Structures are given as C-alpha cells and as structure tokens.
Amino acid sequence: MTTDPTSRHPHSVSQHRHRLLRRIGSFASYTGLSLIALLFLFPFFWMVSNAVRSNAEVMAVPVRIFPEEYHWGTFVEAVVSLPFGTFLLNSFVVACGVTAIVIAVSCLSAYAFARLKFPGREGLLLTYLTTLMIPQVMLVIPLFLIVSKFGWINTYHGMILPVAFSSFGTFLLRQFILGIPKDLDEAAMMDGASRLRILVTVIIPLAMPAIGLLALFTFIAQWKSFLWPLIATSGVEMATLPLGLTLFQTQQGTAWNYIMAGATISMVPGVILAIVLQRVIYKGITVSSGFGGR
Amino acid sequence: MSQSAVAEVSLQPGRPRRFLKPETQTAMLFLLPSFLGFMVFMALPILASLALSFTNWQLISTPSFVGFQNYIRLFTVDPAFYTILRNTLFFAVEYLALNLVISLTLAVWISSLKRGKAIFRVIFFLPTFTPTIAASVVWLLIFTPDGLADTIIRALGLGLPNFLLSSSWAMQAIVLVTLWANVGYNVVMFNAALDLVPKHYLEAATIDGANAWQRFWRIRLPLISPTIFFGTVMTAITSLQIFDEVFAMTRGGPGSATATLGFAIYQKGFTNFQMGYASALAWVMFVMIMALTILQFHMQRKWVHYDD
Question: Which of B131, B147, B227 sits opposite A242 (nearest CB)?
Fold first, then answer.
C-alpha cells in the first residue's frame, strides 16, 4: 500500500516514522469508514433479521439483535399467504413496460433533436426541458382525472403510459448523440440508408452506454415508485410491491415478519443491479452530472 | 433557422403540395410519440391543474370558478397552511444541509482511499436502489414503541421520547430516514467528480507547500463546485416534494407535526376530494421550487467555479 518512492530509501529514522504514521492513518481511515458503512447497512440486517422471526418475537421486549429461533419459512409463507407474487408481477410489468417505452420514445425524439433540422426545434426542446422542474404531485391530480376519464384506473396501461414520456430521457440521449461524429450518419446516408435505419444500426449501438444508464435509472425509479401506483390503482390485485407493503401495514394485527420478508424481496432487484452494474452507474453518474452542471 | 425553412418552402411554387421538407417530415414522425405523450400527460395536466386551482371542485359536484379564493383561503383562513409550509421548509433546509455535509464528507473520505473505493460506493448507494416504502417500513419497525430505537436511547441514557410519538422529534425521524435512503446518490456523484480532479493540480500544490486542508479548500472544492451545485439544486427540488417517507411512517402525524406540502396535497386531493384546493397547494409548491431554483442559479455566480 505504501509504494511511494520516498519509502524505498532505507534506514532513515524520520522516514521510518513517517511511514508508520501513514500506516496508522490509513488504518484509522479504513476502520472509521467501515464502521460508518456497517451503520449504513444495519437497517438491511435488521430487516432480514426480523423477517426470519416469529411475529411474537419481532414485538418482544427486550429487543434481541439476533433472532432466538430462525423461521426461514417466513419468506415462503409471506409470498403464499399474502399476494406478494401478484405484487412482484405487477411491479415487474410496470417497471419493464415503462422502461421499454421510455427507451423507444426517447431514442426517436433524441435523434430528431440531435440530428434533424426542423422549424421550432430549439423552442420545443426548451419547452421539454422546462417541464423537468414540474413537481410530480402537481400532475397527479389532473393525471388521475384523465386516466379515470379514459377508464384506465386499475389497468397496466393506466399505470404505465402517464409516466412513460420522459423529457429527461430525450435530453440525456440527445446530449450523448451530439457527441457521436456526424460523419457516421453521412456515410450511411451515402449507402442509401433511411433515417430510421441509421438510428437503429449506427446511433443506437454507439449510444448503448447512455441507453443502458437511462434504462437502469428508469427501471429503478419505477420499481421504487409509490405515489402514482397508489393513485392509479385501488385494492390488492393491481398493487405493486411498495403499495403491497403499506396495504398490510394498516391491517389489524400487522404481520411485521411478513412485511419485512416483503421488503427484503422488494429490494433484491435493486441490490443485484447496484452490485453488478456498479462500474456502469459510477461512469454514468459522471456523464449525467457533467451535463447537468453545465 | 425556422425562418429559412419557411422561406425554402414558400420559394417552391412549382410543387405546392410539398408542404414540408422531407427532413422535417421525418423529424415530425420521430417526435410524434414523444410529442403526443408530452401533450396528453404533461402539457394538458399542467393546464388542467392551473385551471382546477381556480375552482372549488370536490369531485362529485360540478366545478365552479371561484377566482383566487383558494389562494386567498390558503394564506389567510387555513390555519394548517402555515404549519405545512413551516414543516416543509424546516425539513428541506435541515435535510439539504445535512445531506450536503454528509455526502461531501463521505465522498472525500472514499476518494482518499487507495483501494476498496467501489465497495464503499456500492454500500452507500444500496438504499438509493431500495423502494422508499420498503426502507420506510424497516425504519418504522426500528422506531416502533419499545423497539430498537427506544432500546438504544434508553441504553445510552439519552432521555429522548419515542421519535414517532413525539411531535417535536417525529420530523427528525423523517430526516434521518430520508438521509439514509438518498444520501448515497450525492456520495457517488461527488466521489466521481473528486476522482476526475487532475492529479497534477494536487501534486503542484503539494510542491508549493499546500497542506491537505488547503488542497481541499483551494483546489478540489472549487473544481467540483459545478457538481455540488447540480447536487444542491436537485436535492432541494426533491426535498420540497417529500411524500413517501411521510406517508409510510407518520401520515403527517403526530398531530400535524410532519405534514408537508407533498403530503397535504395528497391528503386534500385524495382523502378529502378537494381537488381545487389541492391544486392551489400544488401551485404554491411549484412556485416555491421555481423561486428556490432561480435563487440558486443566481447565487451560483458567487461560489461555482467553471473551468472554461
């Protein structure tokens, strides 16, 4: 770890002491940060630790850090006795549906804004951008009215379509496409390719990092989403996982161990994505904060 | 640009049916799905929300125009409004300040490490990828009476009440949970920005005799200030909208101690069915967000450093 060139000169007392101090400092730094990280992870531990207890033990006083008995069956019981399977399916359908539409729509509009010339382009782009500041709760009431007028309450399209037109996606992909050399489009055009063909065969493959990031963030945002599903659905059959967790929180005799099992299940996709794609996320955030800061 | 396109079209008298250039036609085709979605699910709702805010619509009756009555009622009659406003601002200010200090500290700390950065980044990022409601119910269990939080408070002899049952401490629980759930995004973003600071700047400063503290304040902080600015604006915008945590943990209580604007809009609209009044509240929130964002853009000249 201490590979700086000065430490190679041996037998100097002051350098020796310097090296020792650095090692102590580095050790303290890792220890401190690890302690904070453990504190950060603790709620996750608490969730799983209570998911595998009997409900009586969850409420027992005094509190025990580790369960007295391990009831691993809670996960199965939770999924079977409460419709967590339905919640899981609904969450997947909505998150995947929104992500697919956001990607398709944003690719088309981003290409139009980045490469095609048409009257009113800058004005339209600015209008799209301005709406990024609109708070979600402001749209929720009229969206509810529109969706109920269409008869879309408690339907997948009612949950998906109103949130699937992201001007953020258009803007993010446009910025990325602007960075792709125009020569590539022109070469393809010489070969007689249509604009759609250019988009699909030239631009989209090159924009994959940005598209992947947009897909990841859209999926996670929808997976976490609570307010719109809460308003666009009623009852149990169309509930997503976050909704399911609160539906059972208000019932009499709350089954905390089942809720904790449900919360654990609802976290799994996010945890897997965060770990597997950590490099992509890190790079993506660099890109997206770069454009945002300008 | 739009003028030249129009000019070209009108200068082609030989082909009067060719309204638009082929490129424009392609563009319109490509933009059609996004534009339709934008009109139906963005522009129309915004206008509808504004219109609704001038009515007294309660969902069952037919809406009637009441002018500025909703807004006047908000600021002069409704005793709850100032409580809600105070709660929202209190939350936003405390949360924003703590989020920035904590995320910046952790980001600097992580970027000082030689190895293992990725592990720490993932750990602090995990809650960000967790549904807020799932995070909130876990914390609800932690704060349950005689639960873990009470046990710790008693063991440390802090003499604090149960947070969620105390009107003076409930908001602190909301701040804590929101911090835990969201601070990771800024940690990763600031860490990425710090890692992008050119090494030779820092080396040059070290040779000139600058210590670690000076290198941070004089070099690294100014160089990442655009990213901090971006993080501040985004965090401020989202914190004024706080809803999920309040809904899951306190439903605005105890009393109205944690009732924020976001929660009040939901409650007025979807529990009391006062759509007009709730829309007026939503526009108050929008104006606050706009004002804050404009203020931040105005102030950035004083502290944000752009390396052009």
Answer: B131
Contact B183, B124 (CB under 8 A): yes
Contact A274 B45 (CB under 8 A): no
Residues near A211 by beta carbon (within 8 Å), at least 6 away in sequence: A103, A107, A173, A204
pLDDT > 70? residue A72 = yes
| Residue A213 and residue A176 in one domain | yes
Residue A55 shares a structural domain with residue A87 = no
Q: What are phi and psi of A289, to 5 degrees?
A: -75, -25
Q: Is residue A203 part of a domain?
A: yes
CB B187 within 8 Å of CB B124: yes
Q: Which residues contact A144 (CB under 8 A, 6 or more apart)?
A: A231, A232, B269, B270
What ipTM was reported for this prediction? Answer: 0.87
The C-alpha atoms of residue A223 and residue A95 are separated, in whole angstroms, by 6
**A29 and A157 together in one domain:** no
Considering the domain architecture, whether residues A51 and A163 belong to the same structural domain is answered as: no
CB contact under 8 A, A294 and B226: yes
Interval A210-259: pLDDT, tens: 898 899 989 999 999 999 999 999 888 999 999 998 877 655 567 888 89
3-class SS string, A132-198:
HHCCHHHHHHHHHHHHHHCCCCCCHHHHHHHHCCCHHHHHHHHHHHHCCCHHHHHHHHHCCCCHHHH
Is residue B65 helix, strand or coil? strand
Q: How far apart are CA B88 and CA B262, in angstroms?
A: 8
Find the domain containing A91 and state its range: 83-250
Nearest CA in chain B to A103: B34
Asked if the structure places residue A172 within a domain, the reply is yes
Q: What domain range includes position B211?
A: 69-301
- Domain contains A64: no
Q: How many domains does chain B have?
A: 1
3-state helix, strand, coil in chain B (%, to 5): 75, 0, 25
- What is the pTM (predicted TM-score) of this model? 0.88
Whole-angstrom distance, CA of residue A260 vs CA of residue A254: 11
Chain B residue with minimum CA distance to A195 = B26
Quick one: tokens of B7? 């000019």
Final residue of a structural domain among A220, A235, A250: A250
Contact B23 A271 (CB under 8 A): no
Q: How far is B129 from chain A (nearest CA, A)?
A: 5
- Residue A157: CATH number of its domain: 1.10.3720.10
Per-residue pLDDT of A145-176, as tens digits, reads 999 999 999 999 999 999 998 888 998 899 88
CATH code, domain with B135: 1.10.3720.10
| Contact flag B28-A242 (C-beta cutoff 8 Å) | no
| Closest to A230 in 3D by CA, of B131, B215, B20 | B131
Strand partners, B55: B65
CB A226 to CB B132 under 8 A?
Answer: yes
In a domain, residue B47? The reply is: no
Please identify among residues 24-53 of chain B the ones whose CB lies closer than 8 Å to any CB of chain A: 24, 26-28, 30-31, 33-35, 37-38, 40-42, 44-46, 48-49, 52
Residue of B113, B137, B139, B283 for testing the chain A interface, max A β-carbons within 10 Å: B137
Same domain flag for A55 and A108: no
Tally of domains in chain A: 2
